[in-house]
Amino acid sequence: MSTSQNQQIQITKAATTKINDVDFDNLTFGSVFTDHLFECDYINGEWQTPVIKPYAPFLLDPSARVFHYGQAIFEGMKAYKDDANAVWLFRPDENFKRFNNSASRMAMPSVPENVFMNGLNELLKLEEAWVKKGNGSSLYIRPFMIATGTGVMANPSDNYKFMILLSPAKAYYAGEVKVLIAEHFSRAANGGIGAAKAAGNYAAQFYPTNLANKEGFQQVIWTDDTTHTKLEEAGTMNVFFRIKDTLFTAPTSERILDGITRKSLIELAASEGINVEVRPVLVAELVAAAKEGTLKEIFGAGTAAVISPISGFSYQDVYYELPKSEDTYASHLKEKLTNIQNKLTEDTFGWTVKV
Amino acid sequence: MSTSQNQQIQITKAATTKINDVDFDNLTFGSVFTDHLFECDYINGEWQTPVIKPYAPFLLDPSARVFHYGQAIFEGMKAYKDDANAVWLFRPDENFKRFNNSASRMAMPSVPENVFMNGLNELLKLEEAWVKKGNGSSLYIRPFMIATGTGVMANPSDNYKFMILLSPAKAYYAGEVKVLIAEHFSRAANGGIGAAKAAGNYAAQFYPTNLANKEGFQQVIWTDDTTHTKLEEAGTMNVFFRIKDTLFTAPTSERILDGITRKSLIELAASEGINVEVRPVLVAELVAAAKEGTLKEIFGAGTAAVISPISGFSYQDVYYELPKSEDTYASHLKEKLTNIQNKLTEDTFGWTVKV
């Protein structure tokens, strides 16, 4: 290992690389990490010197607040490589802003922009060999922050650790996705933390999703917890519905994540001349449209899968199969968006940022 | 260190003890831990050999599922020492059952009863010098489980770690507690995880509690997230209201924790001839009773504080001060319950269990 100082980041390089052991054509999402990670500790009110160092397990006290009271947030981003081997990010400012919005809701400190952005940029420069070219290839980026302060008193931690991990990813195909519309379980409360990318929101979904899996459904479409009549998210993604030729998605709220893929698709669809309506979408509308044959598509939208088409949904024990088509908004918008992300087409939106 | 095998628990003793450095008269709740902890790992579907070993930090992978998706649950219990130096637990079977109910809701494996109970008993035997005599003294017990499996895919972990920590505690006096009734924020959704002792539920409360603190209130009384008209919990405790001479508390639900102190107080109050009504309690009732002078007490109930009296509440920017009295249900029931827990009076309920 060699240690050097770069833009106030203390960099310790790994003695060897794992890259030659990785089969980049057969990657399981989120399972392989690059040689280095970025880390910055927050101790008694101050961010410490950020470091880039070899990816490795780290020590935590058994009473660390993250284990007991769940102060933990994250982001999901991707880096892409263009034909000239330049590395690009997609709307990183949006992830940075949302990360600190999540931090605020979870009573955690804001990460300074230079810590987040310089850390990410320097880490990506060091790991650029891990970013592969071509549509569908990317380097998934996982910034996260956890409470490291010790003691099992139920109040916010004094100390935190902010880290960035990198994981190479291929295009994400979930296979056929049938969904169950939630009639009892919920992912978010009014006045709760549904709009934050808080770790606990995800664990809360596992049990209801397991139950859906047992009934043959891959995901749950979450509804509002009060009436279960409004369609809000699909699994860990935002959700879009195409009825006739209009694309519908729910407005963001304190129950619904302000997805970056979601907002990009809304802009992109509008620019393609697709009529987009952002308003609460009712289960009753979806069922009525499915019955009369005007429901053409449902798809999830998120960083990992970009767009994940849904083949049918179940509600009150009735299964509604969607029409199969090659010419869908989902496939059209996914191609447009991934072409922008992968720098295969001009980015007229100014969404891509060079590392 | 010496290692031995005891009832299939592998015990490694610490070379030295910290006990002589601890000021047992001046303890901050949850900040000091005993010399040893209990640990049992769950790996690929099987619980491994449980161990008791010196309390120390442990290694986790940066991609450990607990950091990213919040699979983490806990319990709070206490051990007490009687005049004959025997160590006692209070309703440990209830904590064990609730722990596994929480595990189920968070898609985590059940901890076998012998792992939980033998582990706790053996750890307490080893640490019995840390249990101090006298009303108010106890050894706080923190069983918890975290997801240790690696990889940032959003599904349940394969691997988990179950641990028990011990922390000496004195009687817990919060000082004067004024509360703010939640009009916007919430701790639990219908169909959510409010009834589970899931780590994420606690972090979600920190921000609204911080806001209340800034306005001069120590805690928040949580209301239902749909209408904010029903009184549900106080901070991290269940909540009781005395109107005239009747004690009211909300029924447990998927939004409200099935508190062991709560259910013990309901039984104890009834046995003392106090009229107890378990039914939804409305904010409007509380305000009306405060205005007409029939609201005599509000108190929180939980393992850490046992009973925490509340001196007044604010709702819609109006502050209602409660009457001051020495002769309260809170002080009477707290004395009765702590006398049972500390073995200073006969336990006619069969709640106490010898270690």
UniProtKB/TrEMBL annotation, chains A, B:
<dbReference type="Pfam" id="PF01063">
    <property type="entry name" value="Aminotran_4"/>
</dbReference>
<dbReference type="InterPro" id="IPR043131">
    <property type="entry name" value="BCAT-like_N"/>
</dbReference>
<keyword id="KW-0028">Amino-acid biosynthesis</keyword>
<dbReference type="InterPro" id="IPR018300">
    <property type="entry name" value="Aminotrans_IV_CS"/>
</dbReference>
<keyword id="KW-0100">Branched-chain amino acid biosynthesis</keyword>
<dbReference type="GO" id="GO:0004084">
    <property type="term" value="F:branched-chain-amino-acid transaminase activity"/>
</dbReference>
<keyword id="KW-0808">Transferase</keyword>
<protein>
    <recommendedName>
        <fullName>Branched-chain-amino-acid aminotransferase</fullName>
        <ecNumber>2.6.1.42</ecNumber>
    </recommendedName>
</protein>
<dbReference type="InterPro" id="IPR043132">
    <property type="entry name" value="BCAT-like_C"/>
</dbReference>
<dbReference type="InterPro" id="IPR001544">
    <property type="entry name" value="Aminotrans_IV"/>
</dbReference>
<keyword id="KW-0663">Pyridoxal phosphate</keyword>
<dbReference type="InterPro" id="IPR036038">
    <property type="entry name" value="Aminotransferase-like"/>
</dbReference>
<keyword id="KW-0032">Aminotransferase</keyword>
<comment type="similarity">
    <text>Belongs to the class-IV pyridoxal-phosphate-dependent aminotransferase family.</text>
</comment>
<dbReference type="InterPro" id="IPR005786">
    <property type="entry name" value="B_amino_transII"/>
</dbReference>
